[in-house]
Amino acid sequence: MSRRAVVIGAGLAGMLAAAVLSAAGADEVVVLDRDELPEGPDHRKGLPQGRHAHLLMPGGMEAMEELLPGAHLRKRLLAAGAHEISLSSGMLALTPEGWLRRWRREGPVMLTCSRALVDWVLRETVREQTPVEIRRGAVVGLTGSAGRVRGVRIAAPGGDTDLDADLVVDASGRGTRVVSWLDGLGLTGVREQAVDSGLVNASRVYRVPDGAERFPLTIVQPNPYLRRPGRSAMVMPIEGGRWLVSCGGSRGGEPPADPEGFLRYALALPDPIVGRLISGAEPLTDVHLSRSTSNVRRYLEELPHWPEGFVVLGDALATFNPAYGHGMSVAAFGARVLGRELGREPGRGGGLGSPGLARRVVRGAARAADAAWSMAVSQDVLYPEVRGGRPSAGGRVLTGYTRRMMRAATGSYPAASAIWDVTSLLAPPTRMFRPGAVLAAAAGSPLPPSVSPPLTAAEREVLRSLDRTGM
């Protein structure tokens, strides 16, 4: 008897899940997406944050490589134009506690490129490596019962059609209708939490000016500790000799969509470096805005009963403010949980239709999202006019310690190393409380704070040559 798996959503979470299911022995894996998928690395409607900056963190890249053994996904991305950025030396970062120094020692390496490139390279890799079938179709519900999901219902011009499956994976992203689908099966009472800082992202693509090809990734981070709207900007190298420039502002400090206002916004930040860089660069696109930025958690793992044959991964389970760059990595972690559960020995819970498999995967994927959720929410609740959350007493204590660690990191390699490991999702937040990290936080920075970006002489010349602001 053939075994079919259906994945809802052909984005990053969906394609990783499809690869895992194929490797686990599903006879047929069908991926359904409501969009007409582009033939190349182009933006698509179903990815609301697709035009804005995405960082592929080292922890997420490791998980993706594990899920696609032998596919050399990192090499494929680099060959397609992605950039490797060392967190220790390849980045200029102004934090709320000051400029981070750049170190000659090796540190974690993240990848930067457009989100469209990540999705396209991953989709083509999965298509090449597996017999996964991708179809266009809008899923409108689940079939089956509260005890077991039997498939999906797909909208069709002549009437809805059903597609049976031994396992259904919802990887449909921010727009998921999983709560109403479960309601339709009689499974009600899903607890949801939304923490919304009102962040608006504004992004524009520029041609990298001659001579600026090796200029470091540059970011001015928002400051959540001033009780004022958070405002930020980033210049990120992407494929095709381009810079993706994103500005972000929480409620009350939103960036504008007009080109002149976009530049003024970047220049008005605590350091005008992003505005100075782009003032002499050639824009290639208009300014694109997005408001789909809230943190949303669906606590599906808490339901007293969970149907067999149904798994939820990626943004459909937990969605993060994209400013923190964790969404892609958490989606990969969830797919890794699915792979590990499917890989259990027969008789010990492994296999597509194994009893309890779906519940274990949902619980494991929820745990894999915990660290990213805590990091995102603990900062977003500090912004004025945030909706859906407020700082707790314990959160304030943790924030105080984190600020001390970040202050030390402006001139302490051990402190900086602890922060890189956690924010890049290579280590859990407990890494910040290991003895060496605690000592570094207590000792503080052995170097005086840097009042200006830590640029090399060549980089200072590039900045000077591009600056059209007279600053």
UniProtKB/TrEMBL annotation:
SUPFAM superfamilies: FAD/NAD(P)-binding domain. Residues 1-23 form the signal peptide. Pfam families: FAD_binding_3 (PF01494). It comes from the Bacteria. Keywords: Signal. The keyword Lipid metabolism does not apply. GO terms for molecular function: FAD binding. Residues 5-342 form the FAD-binding domain. This is FAD-binding domain-containing protein.
